[in-house]
Amino acid sequence: MDRNKAIERLGSETAPWDFIIIGGGATGLGCAVDAASRGYRTLLVERHDFAKGTSSRSTKLVHGGLRYLRQGNLSLVLAALRERGLLRRNAPHLVHKLGFVIPAYRWHDKAFYGAGLRIYDSLAGKFGLGPSRILSRNETLERLPTLNAKNLRGGIMYFDGQFDDARLAITLARTAADHGATVLNYAKAVGFIKEGDRVSGVQILDEESGARMEARGRCVINAAGVFCDEVRRLDDPLTPRMLVFSQGSHLVFDKHFHPGDDALMIPKTEDGRVLFAVPWHDRVIIGTTDVPVEDTTIEPAPNESELSFLFEHAKKYLCRHPEPGDALSVFCGLRALVASGSGRRVTSSLSRDHTIMISGSGLVTVTGGKWTTYRKMAADAVEQAQTSAGFEHRPCQTERLFLHGWREESARTATLAEYGSDADEIEGIARGDPELAARLHPRLPAIGAEIVWAARHEMARTVEDVLARRTRSLVLDTAASIDAAPDAARLLAHEIGRDDAWASDQVAKYCQIARRYLIERYQ
Question: At residue 286, does pLDDT exceed 70?
Answer without folding.
Answer: yes
